[in-house]
Amino acid sequence: MQPSLTFKIIFGGEGGVGKTTMLHRYVENRFLEDTKLTIGVEIFNKEIMLSDGSLCALQLWDFGGQDRFRFMLDSFIRGASGAFLMFDLTTLFTFNKLGKWLELFRKNDPNLPIVLLGSKNDLENHSVQDEYVEGFIKENNISTYLKVSSKTDLNVDKAFDRLLKAIMQKKGFL
Fold first, then answer.
1. How does pLDDT run along the chain (174 residues), one tens digit per residue?
2. What is the CA radius of gyration of the chain?
């Protein structure tokens, strides 16, 4: 059976926030203790069955978080159906850099569906307070925020379900 739909989903956030780890959890259902620095972009693929029984192909674009790779991302973002914007709950610096990522993601599509993810929820000592996140969400018209953990699998599938629903609504399928 051939997929009837294909969605390009992009992942952004500073290096080390857990983008690659989350993708391995979602695509392969496994937690990687150690991952290597993503150079440029890495693409994951997954086929899923939608609630209407149709097959959907997901192209998951994992962007390297270091500044030195950002120059090439503009062309990679074109054609995205939706995005995940990710920060590390234990590192305030990663939250403070979200504005740059958001600007890059919405440059060509100001209505791009975006789900905000606070990663590493399994760790203690969260330095990013909920009120900071709430302000960012309101200021930037982001509809969904979830705390996730690739280690415990907390909200990983839920994050994809929420983004896919937003994409389907934008495209008029729901």
1. 788 899 999 999 999 999 999 999 999 999 988 777 676 788 999 999 988 888 999 999 998 755 655 556 677 899 999 999 999 999 999 999 999 999 999 998 999 999 999 999 999 999 999 999 999 999 998 989 999 999 999 999 999 999 999 999 999 887
2. 15
Nearest to 159 by CA among 67, 74, 58, 69: 58
Statement: the pTM of the whole predicted model exceeds 0.85: yes
101: domain CATH number is: 3.40.50.300
Q: Note down the domain range covering 72.
A: 5-170
User: Residue written as tokens 């998951």?
Assistant: 60
Domain tally, the chain: 1
